[in-house]
Amino acid sequence: MAQPELSPKIAEPAPQAAAPAAGERPRGPDRRKRPTPRFSRYTLFGGRRRNGGRREGENDGAFVDQYSGRLAFAMLWIAAMNSLDSFFTLLHLQSGGIELNPVADAMLGTGRIGFVASKSLLIIVPLVVLTLHKNFPLARAGIWTAAGAYTLLVGYHLTLL
Same domain for 73 and 122? Predict the structure, then answer.
């Protein structure tokens, strides 16, 4: 004879799949489950992350998809100051001045176009890196240090006129 079971089995609820709302289709895996990568298909277009995290304290060290107008202004300012530095350097050299920076002096050996092109490339690459790392404290310090240093340098060039 079979013994009756003393404890009845409790039926476990079936897991429910998260269904999209009516009229919506899922666009793929949820991007919020992992941090934004340094480079992604959203780096330049289409992303929505302007800040690093959703909660307080998550911004430092996080990458984003969109950048603020303030950051764009700082980058354009540094690029403009670099261009003015190149212009004033060439102007002073035509007036009989000398280049004291040995790296810039070596770049001047490539000619005027080579000098401006190499000097521009040497500032554009770091600006891209600083922009991508804008939520890192060292990058923020680099942005404002570069902006201040180039502003002072252009001011110095203006005193030589």
Answer: yes
Instruction: Tell me, yes or no, if the pTM score tops 0.70.
Output: no
Counting the structural domains of the chain, the total is 2
Domain co-membership, 38 together with 99: no
Domain shared by 74 and 61, yes or no: no
Render pLDDT for 90-107 as a digit per residue (tens, 0 to 9): 999 999 989 888 999 999
Whether 86 is covered by a domain: the verdict is yes
Q: What is the DSSP annotation of the chain?
A: -PPPPSSPPPPPPPPPP-PPPTT----SS-GGGSPPPSS-TTTTTT----SS-SSTT--TT---S---HHHHHHHHHHHHHHHHHHHHHHHHHHTT-----HHHHHHHTT-HHHHHHHHHHHHHHHHHHHHHTTTSHHHHHHHHHHHHHHHHHHHHHHHH-
Split at pLDDT 50, 70, 90, the class of 146 is very high
